[in-house]
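Problem statement: downstream parser choked on a complex file, so we are re-checking the raw output for the S-adenosylmethionine run. The parser issue turned out to be on our end (a line-ending mismatch), but while we're here, posting the original submission so the record is complete.
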Amino acid sequence: MTRDAKDFTPALGKAWLTPLYDLAIALLTRESTWRRALARQINPVPGDNILDVGCGTGSLALMLKDQQPGAIITGLDPDPEVLARAARKADGLGLDINLVAGFLEEKTFPKGTRFTKVTSSLVLHQVPVAEKERILRLARGLLAPGGLLHVADYGLQRTALMRTGFRIVQSLDGYENTTPNARGILPGLMNKAGFSNIEEMLVVATPTGSISLYRAARD
Ligand SMILES: C[S@@+](CC[C@H](N)C(=O)[O-])C[C@H]1O[C@@H](n2cnc3c(N)ncnc32)[C@H](O)[C@@H]1O
């Protein structure tokens, strides 16, 4: 089935807000705390081949490349506008990352491609449950045996304060796709996709709800 290239929720919910994405994330998500923790958790080493699904403006992919020049980093996103921003940021920083336009599909990478690590940040909360499942299943299929999945996203919202903050995200990205995350759906979906040793490594309270860092393994 061919997918409509425009069939995605833009980075900040509406396409006209995309130019504000990096600023909004910095101000509203305690970005430096969770993103640095995620990069530490991923811990790129020389020879790593890392895929960032829904890389947006490339903030995580570039952080990983800066942290470990000996790792190959590939960012994938269906939105050409955020990819153009990622490419400009990469040029400005003099960092060489691969940027791939499109959804994650069986045919996105040549048969036999294997990544040592797959990561995704702030993507799964804004896609339908079937798409969350599809991304996780394909991510597992692209991982080499022993490879790790690292996800940072809005997870179980444990307190009234966090649930209230998360409404800001829900008002932008819609309630249908975001509510399952707030109810803590992600670890179960990772299990369903065939991952093992699924752990919530860190929960970061932010003004827009809590962001959980998860790690899961492909046996
Ligand atoms: C909130 S942004 C997060 C961007 C980046 N990962 C970050 O941490 O800043 C969500 C991104 O997911 C992308 N996206 C939306 N639907 C997607 C899908 N079905 N598969 C992959 N990426 C998707 C959007 O284009 C957007 O760039």
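For whoever reads this later: The beta strands are 49-53, 72-77, 98-101, 115-121, 143-154, 196-206, 209-217.
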